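Dear colleagues,

As part of the handover before I leave the project, I'm documenting each prediction I ran so the next person doesn't have to rerun anything. This entry is a single chain, and its sequence is reproduced below.
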Amino acid sequence: MTDPGCPICAGHRGEGDLVAPVVWRDDLVWVKHLVNRPMPVTLGHLLVETDRHAPFVDSLTDEEAAAVGRAVRDAARALRAELDVDAVHAMVINTRLEHFHEHVIVRHRGTPAEIPWHQVDDWSGAPRGGPAEVADLCARLARHVP
């Protein structure tokens, strides 16, 4: 089920502002790399989104919740394997888009201590890249999916 007015559903159809490189997907979840415009973006900020339009975490079926959990775990493992990170954080914040999505974000090694965990994308020293670098990272991350 999709919602024609939902920007995340539109992104899944390849339309709108939320089209982003896919790391992997199955019939329940998508794992994508965040792409803010303009580029470059901080490398290692992933989104786990349900395929079905489910507004909130309490809207997930048991199968979707399990798939999200596995995808977040696998994404974190892949990020650790491919990037030099101090930590991998995950957070769910649905304040603007009512389609379940969970952020999986790395804290790159060397991030200053004064940068809070939820603002690591704001660190100017974080590794950044354009479309080619994001696509390369997505392909490397996809190799880690069981």
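Residues 62-82 form the longest helix (21 residues). The mean pLDDT is 92.

All the best with the project,
I.
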